[in-house]
Amino acid sequence: GQVRTGIVRSVQDYGAFVDLGHGVEGLLHVSEMSWGRRVQASELLRPGQEVRVAIIRLDRQNKRIGLSLKQVQGDPWNTVEDRYPVGTIVTGKVTRLAEFGAFVELEPGLEGLVHISELSPQRVRRVEDAVQIGQEVRAQVIKVDRAARKLSLSIKAVQAAEEEEFTPVPARRTASTQRRRPLKG
Q1: Average pLDDT of each block of 10 consecutive residues along the chain (185 residues)?
Q2: Kind and range of the H or E run holding 112
Q3: DSSP structure class, residue 38
Q4: How many angstroms separate the CA atoms of 104 and 85, rounded?
Q5: 120 forms bridges with which residues in the sheet?
Q6: Is 182 exposed, middle or buried, given 0-12, 13-18 or 19+ CB atoms closer than 10 A?
Q7: How many Å is the maximal CA-CA distance in the chain?
Q8: How far apart (Å, rounded) are the C-alpha atoms in residues 129 and 138?
Q9: How far, in Å, CA of 93 to CA of 102, rounded?
Q10: d(C-alpha 67, C-alpha 28), whole Å
Q11: Fewest Cβ atoms closer than 10 Å to its Cβ: which of 4, 27, 83, 102?
């Protein structure tokens, strides 16, 4: 539970070794580096870098210490409702496609689902016809469920709002431009 500052000594595919001082070294496993998916240790850390880490495991018998960088950063789901209230327009990157929709990453560790019915104002038969992995999209937050760690997004809502914004409004008739109709008598 303690938070310590240490120096990264080496970076491996599976994690990094961090010198905590006084000859004590701990392993910062790649799964504890970021709340995001598919993290590569070498992209986040380099030897000699100073890091703040939390001690999450202590194995005195085998003289091993497990460290976490993401525990120090805090879980992004804890404040999701404050940062992404319903109705907010967000920008994110499509990370995964499924038959039922597309997952969009808003920040590391925080993905939302755009259901297939929310991809476009037109009917979408296949998700890949509407979006591609790696594509940056704008979407509206339509539901937040922090307890279930689910965020529902709609690209359709943003497109509809943009179309409405650019639709010309017909000119109003004024008294001087109205044709006078004869009174029936």
Answers
A1: 90 91 89 81 90 90 88 88 94 95 92 95 93 96 94 92 65 53 56
A2: strand 110-115
A3: S
A4: 16
A5: none
A6: exposed
A7: 107
A8: 17
A9: 10
A10: 5
A11: 83
Residue of 60, 129, 135 whose CA lies nearest to 104: 135
> How far is residue 75 from each of residues 78, 147, 161, measured CA to CA in Å?
6, 12, 32
- Predicted structure pTM score: 0.68
- Give residue 119's identity as a one-letter amino acid code: L
- Residue 73's φ and ψ, nearest 5 degrees, are -75, -25
Cα–Cα distance, 64 to 170 (Å, whole number)? 73
Q: What distance in Å separates the CA atoms of residue 51 and residue 60, rounded to the nearest whole number?
A: 23
Whether 85 contacts 16, CB under 8 Å? no
Tokens, residue 67: 């460290």
Q: How far apart are CA 141 and CA 121, in angstroms?
A: 16
Measure the CA–CA gap between 185 and 182, rounded to whole angstroms.
9
